[in-house]
Amino acid sequence: MPRPLGELEDAVMTRVWQWNRPVTVREVLEDLQQERSIAYTTVMTVMDNLHQKGWVRREAEGRAYRYTAVSTRAAYSAALMNEAWSTSDNPAAALVAFFGMMSAEQREALRDAVRVVQHDGESGGEAAAEPPTEPAAEPGAEPAAEPPAPQEAEGDSAERPQEPGR
After folding, report:
1. How many beta carbons lie within 10 A of that of residue 95, not counting itself?
2. Tens digits of per-residue pLDDT, 97-151?
3. Could you give the C-alpha distances from 123 to 58, 62, 113, 114, 118, in angstroms and in order?
4. What is the pTM of this model?
5. Nearest CA to 32 among 20, 21, 44?
6. Distance between alpha carbon 105 and the CA centroid of its chain, in Å?
7. How far is the C-alpha of 66 from the C-alpha of 24, rounded, in Å?
């Protein structure tokens, strides 16, 4: 079962999920640096850790890796909710408490999701293979902008496909 991502892991994965394309360490670094001071090696280590944990896959492109999410943010969130629910000593009470924390919009989204699952069950098939599409961002949030393509100097060795610390 998944464990919750740490703050920096979540910040990195948020970008990978939002951009929905293969990304480099440098792209993520440059975007994160708009919010905080962070070292290239820190981002490289986090992305390597996410790869080791199975959250991203990577492919070498020249001397750099391009990282791609293995699953969606929706699947990650669902796995966390399932883990929390299944480890409760009283799952029904946990659900009631969880539903009580929801906003009206969240409860409506829940009703919609239940209708999708019920409809798929009535049609004789398994539960939906693809969940309802997830909005790109929270309501009222600015859309995520893709960072500009990095321009690296010839001979830049900052993104060699090596393990951190080598």
Report:
1. 13
2. 999 999 999 999 999 999 999 987 776 544 444 444 444 443 344 444 444 444 4
3. 38, 48, 16, 14, 9
4. 0.61
5. 44
6. 22
7. 5
Torsion of CA 95, 97, 99, 103, to 10 degrees: -160
42 in Cβ contact with 25 (< 8 Å): no
CB environment 127-144: b (16+ within 10 A), e (fewer): eeeeeeeeeeeeeeeeee
The closest alpha carbon to 67, from 159, 130, 4, 166, belongs to: 159
Amino acid type, 86 = S
pLDDT digits (tens, 9 = 90+) for 30-75: 999 999 999 999 999 999 999 998 999 999 999 999 999 999 999 9
